[in-house]
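In practice, a research group might receive sequence data for several interacting partners and want a quick structural hypothesis before committing to experiments. The following worked case mirrors that situation: the sequences arrive first, and a predicted assembly follows.
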Amino acid sequence: GQQLNQSPQSMFIQEGEDVSMNCTSSSIFNTWLWYKQDPGEGPVLLIALYKAGELTSNGRLTAQFGITRKDSFLNISASIPSDVGIYFCAGQETSGSRLTFGEGTQLTVNP
Amino acid sequence: GAVVSQHPSWVICKSGTSVKIECRSLDFQATTMFWYRQFPKQSLMLMATSNEGSKATYEQGVEKDKFLINHASLTLSTLTVTSAHPEDSSFYICSARGAGEETQYFGPGTRLLVL
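A structural hypothesis for the assembly, expressed as tokens:
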């Protein structure tokens, strides 16, 4: 089946620093999504990307859909303590198809 | 808008008993609902996809007789873990998607602990 490789697995940063994480796929996706999951909660959608090359922002978050359609990255600028959580990328091959999730990036922000 | 709820939020049961988890779309009609399982420090793994009024499609390796899924209405899907065993202990998360929509909205999850 498809696999999404997400890196890094974990990050420990100081408040105010910028963060970058990425996902790569062995196959082409038509949609890339980025979610955040807090402990004991379901994932919450942060950013959805639908077009190769697309760069989309949501507040301090910016995500890009890679030109090859096999990768995506998420940047968080000026991190704050509430950014702590697990960030997952997810890809979708075609419209309406299942989501494939990456392994997640655990982010810790030290105040 | 696009709120999905799950009930219960956590459940503890004895080995051999069955547990039912509900997933509801509160403010939209969910033609498709998805059930995921997440073990500690791992990603979400899709268990099955259900379309309203039809049988669920299970992912490879997921026993359909053990994980019974019913999607009888456009706002409710249920997952029943039959004859639960300790290895079924996990975090079960549902998501829902409306007709013609791309986005899946996730529920808050149900923590199952089988003793």
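Before designing any experiment, note the following. Residues 27 and 89 of chain A are 14 Å apart (CA to CA). Chain A touches chain B through 20 residues (CB under 8 Å).
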